Structures are given as structure tokens and as C-alpha cells.
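User: Hey, quick favor. My workstation is busy. Could you predict this chain's structure for me?
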Amino acid sequence: MKAIIDANGKTPREVNSKLKKLAKENDKIIIKNPNAMHYLAAGLTEKVEVIIDGSAGYFAGTMIHGPMIEIKGNAGWFPADNMTKGKITIHGSAGDGVGQGIYGGTVIVKEDAGSRTGEIMKNGTIIIGGNSGFMTGLYMMGGQIIVLGNLGKDAGESIIRGKIYVKGKIESLGKNAKTEKLTEKEKKELQKTLRENGFKLEKAEYDTFKKIIPRSKRPFYGKEAEEG
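Assistant: No problem, here it is.
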């Protein structure tokens, strides 16, 4: 079943309350006139498809566990913040902190993202179709970030675990970050992930990707050094 919520004139609390009630009885819910409202779909735990028919504000889909959310426009800061399970697709651009602290699931931004993408993320996948700003992967603890455009300054700043794949240029690396070539296995896994999420690249393009990983497993203990 499908339901429609008209967000015009409503508060975020009113929209989310109605969304959670409808999610128990419907497979698909469309939010009309979102008008860049903050906190849309916050804390939603039902396995339901949610279409936000326009742009969303800050913290879209924060703390979700299970739903598939599609934002037809742009999103503000911190979309998918602390998500544990599910998928958020943003057709436009997004602000700072995309996928901050996620524990799982997939976040896709079709165009550009702001700074600190994937900050303190623990697991999951973030895909940026355009560029990602400074300190992408700040304090990253796991999972993977895939950027098809360029990375800003201090990429991988204080990264602890996880991998950042970037197709374009890297303005500079942050502390504890280093680059390596991808293995053939990683190229195949990357190709599979991108294809499954609607990104079609030529096979030769995968040879242009760089991988950012931690230099040290214990960057905050004593002198920064390479570790095996």
C-alpha cells in the first residue's frame, strides 16, 4: 500500500509522528512539500520505502534502522547520521557530515558533498557521485567511502580503520593517512558495489582509483609510525 503525507504547514514532529504510524501499514510513503524540513524520517525503524519529494534539511534519516529513503532534491548537514541499517539516496548535493557515525547501511549522494563525510563512521558504505570536501573520513573507524570526484584537504584525517576510494584528485592527506594502489580483488568489489547502486563506469576507469588507508593502527599512542 502507498500513502502520502503533505508536510506543508506541519512541524517535523507532526510529519514524523504521522510517518511512523503510516509505516506500520504501508510499503511506500511519499512526503510532499518537504520544503527542506529538518529531521525528516528521524528514528524510523520500519522496513518501508520513503520518498521525500523535494529537498530535506539537517539530519534527514538520522538514527534510522531499516527504511529505504530517497530524497529527490538536496539534503542539509548530517544526512543518515548514526544510521544502523537501511539506505538513503540523495539525488542532489548534501551538506557537511554525510553518514556521520553510521554503523551500517548505504548512503548515496549523486552530486557533491560538503566536509567531513563519514566522520567517525564505524561500518557501512558511503558513495559520493561528485566531490567531497575537506577532512573526508575524519576519525573513520570502519566501512568504506567511495568518491567519484575529487577530495578536499586533509583527506582521511586521523583515520583509524576503513578505506576511502577516490577516483579524482586528492588535495592533501590528513594525519595518519596514506595512499595505496587497489588490488584486483578490491577493483572487482568496487565495481560490484557501484553497479548495484546505479553507477556505471568503464572497466578502465577502475584503474584510476586510489585507496586511502591508515598509516598506523595506533595513531594516538606515541610517535606516528608505520605498523604491520
